[in-house]
Amino acid sequence: MATHCVGLIGATGETGGSILQGLIQDGSFEIIALARPESLSKPANVALKDKGIQVRALDLEGSEQAIVAALKDIDILISAIAGSQQLVQIPLAKAAKVAGIKRFVPCAFATPMPVGVHQSRDQKEEIFNLTKRLHLPYTIIDVGWWHQFSFPRLPSGKIDYVVGFPNETVPGDGNIPTALTDLRDVGKYVARVIKDDRTLNKTVFVYNELWTQNRIHDLLEKLSGEKIPRKYTPAEKYEQKVDDVIAELEANPKDPVLRVKKVYNQYCLSVGIRGENTPEYAQYLGYLDGKQLYPDVKFTPYEDYLQEVVDGRAVGIYDEMRPLLFEALAEGD
Ligand SMILES: NC(=O)c1ccc[n+]([C@@H]2O[C@H](COP(=O)([O-])OP(=O)(O)OC[C@H]3O[C@@H](n4cnc5c(N)ncnc54)[C@H](OP(=O)(O)O)[C@@H]3O)[C@@H](O)[C@H]2O)c1
């Protein structure tokens, strides 16, 4: 029997799609997908309706009164909105307070980081801080780095069908551990976290396993039989790229390719050089540790995922955005 009504923004996206699956599989939630009015007729939303999911219009550019009305009957509000759209959650958080939302899960679903090192993270933090200023009950959930973004290309091109980021460089000496989670497992964790009283007004870090880039390269070489060139790259190179792209963005602030370059290189520094995507650093920032909260979650082991990739059985992500990611990142050093 449904016990909580969950409103989910971004159900047609990658993260939101996984969350939707996790909530459905859990079976104890009533789910309402909240979509912007202009997207209601898109095939992805029509497919949700065909599956029996209630899809409701939510216009974050509309009046507060209209947003509050769209949140009617919702207990738990989850936002899995696109990385570039974080600030549209400002009116959402304000309306959630008026609507009496019992738990707001603003969009995090990324890697733990301090403030001031990453554009997208800083925008997320603006929303977290607004939520706290509103005294709105919340849970912030970070999930580590997706399996789907974690591995390099093979020289043969055999796994290009599923490469998310064309990682051409290895940050530092390749020995920094990083927390990986299969995108398909994100929703399983979210379903557990949002009905857990221990996580109310807390920040939680969930992840599957810790891997280094050298171990990932070793495993992919073993599974594929191919030798992968390792272009070890020092911090200064990534810092220079961030500085260069910031200068370019001054002339073209909305250029999506430049934006991807900036956030990617900022991730390389945080995840691959400073080692911030680890349980230790998350604990330092005050997170609850998902491994301690939910030791029984059955997740996809990284080796199994990479075997799927090499076997040609893996499913790609961001069908529409992949050409842009390749344009932004497949540039040698
Ligand atoms: N941990 C990782 O490795 C990792 C990797 C990638 C992303 N992420 C994080 O995951 C979060 C979600 O990103 P994603 O890449 O999964 O999303 P996505 O696939 O780009 O999907 C975005 C969703 O948000 C909706 N949306 C976009 N703009 C909206 C607006 N203005 N109003 C209402 N809905 C809007 C889209 O719906 P329509 O466009 O159909 O309306 C879509 O359902 C981001 O915050 C990002 O930082 C994490």
From TrEMBL:
Domain NmrA-like: 6-245
Identification of the protein by name: NmrA-like domain-containing protein
Keyword Metal-binding: no
Keyword flag Transmembrane: no
GO MF term list: oxidoreductase activity
Coiled-coil parts of chain: none
Keywords on record: NADP, Oxidoreductase
